[in-house]
Design goal:
seven-stranded mixed beta sheet; four-stranded mixed beta sheet; 13 strands
C-alpha cells in the first residue's frame, strides 16, 4: 500500500520526545514512521504505543539514515520531522494544501521554517530563525547528498518552495546537551574536511573562528538575541571554526 503522506522521525534514545512528536503528526499524516538507530531507552515501546510504525537501522550518518528511510517507505510524499520538533495545526494545514497541488510544475520539495528554543530562549537571529529546512519531499524526486553526513543537503528534481508556517523546535534544553551535540557535529565536520583532502594550516585556527563568529553574530543578526546570541556565536565559532581543525591536526593522516 502506498500512502499519500508519511512522516518520518529519526530517533535514538528519544523517550522524552517521541510520543508528543508523533501526536503532533498523526492527525494529518497517513503514516508515522519512527526510524530508530538502536535506542537503549523506551523510545521504541513509546513509539509503538503512540501508534507509529517502527523500523530499526544501525546508525552510520544522518544523510544515510534519511536516504534509507526515504527509499524504504511506501509514500508519495515524505515529511521529515525530528523528535524534538512539533507540528502545529496551522503547519498541518499548510502541508496538506501543498501536497494537493496537482500542477505538472508543482514543487517537489518544500522548505519549512523553524522556531528554535535554545535553553529556554526563543531565538530571533544567528541563523536560528527562520531557519528553513528542506523537509517535505516528493519521494522519487529527492535524494540526500551522501558526502554531507551532518546538516544534510537534498537534491531535488523540480521546483522548490517555502511554507510559511513553522515547526516548533525544542532545540537544546540545557547547555550540557548543547555541548554534547556540538562535539558530535564538530567531529563530523572534521571527517568531511578530511574527505575533501583539507589539512589544517596555522591561519585556520584564527581565520575560521573569526569568520564563523562574524557570520553568526553580524551577518545572521545574532546580536538580536543579546547576551544569549553572543554566547552562542562564540561557542559555535569554537565548535565549527576551531575544533574541526584541531581534530584534523591530531589525526595521523594530517601528519
Amino acid at each position: 500500500m502506498t500512502h499519500r503522506l508519511a512522516a518520518i522521525i529519526l530517533t535514538r534514545n528519544e523517550a522524552g520526545n517521541v510520543a508528543p512528536c508523533i501526536e503532533s503528526l498523526r492527525a494529518f499524516c497517513d503514516l508515522v514512521l519512527v526510524w530508530d538507530s538502536g535506542s537503549s531507552d523506551e523510545t521504541v515501546a513509546l513509539a509503538l504505543a503512540a501508534g507509529a510504525l517502527v523500523h530499526v537501522r544501525p546508525f552510520d550518518n544522518y544523510a544515510a539514515q534519511r536516504q534509507a528511510a526515504l527509499d524504504w517507505v511506501a509514500a508519495d510524499w515524505v515529511f521529515f520531522v525530528d523528535a524534538d520538533e512539533r507540528a502545529t495545526p496551522a503547519l498541518a494545514t499548510a502541508v496538506v494544501q501543498a501536497i494537493a497541488d496537482a500542477r505538472p510544475d508543482a514543487p517537489a520539495g518544500y522548505w519549512v521554517p523553524r522556531r528554535n528554543l535554545i535553553v529556554g530562549h526563543e531565538m530571533r537571529g544567528g541563523g536560528f530563525y527562520p531557519d528553513h529546512q528542506l523537509r517535505l519531499l516528493r519521494r522519487g524526486r529527492c535524494r540526500y547528498v551522501p558526502e554531507r553526513q551532518v546538516h544534510e543537503i537534498v537534491t531535488v528534481e523540480g521546483a522548490e518552495a517555502k511554507l510559511s508556517e513553522p515547526l516548533i523546535h525544542y532545540n537544546y534544553l540545557s547547555w550540557a546537551q548543547f555541548h554534547r551535540k556540538q562535539k558530535q557535529y564538530a567531529a563530523y565536520e572534521a571527517q568531511m574536511l578530511a574527505q575533501r583532502g583539507i589539512r589544517p594550516r596555522p591561519h585556520n585556527f584564527v581565520v575560521q573562528p573569526v569568520r564563523e563568529f562574524w557570520r553568526r553574530f553580524v551577518t545572521l543578526a545574532g546580536w538580536r538575541d543579546g547576551w544569549h546570541g553572543l554566547r552562542l556565536a562564540l561557542l559555535l565559532a569554537w565548535y565549527y571554526g576551531f575544533i574541526p581543525y584541531q581534530i584534523l591536526r591530531q589525526s595521523p593522516a594530517a601528519a
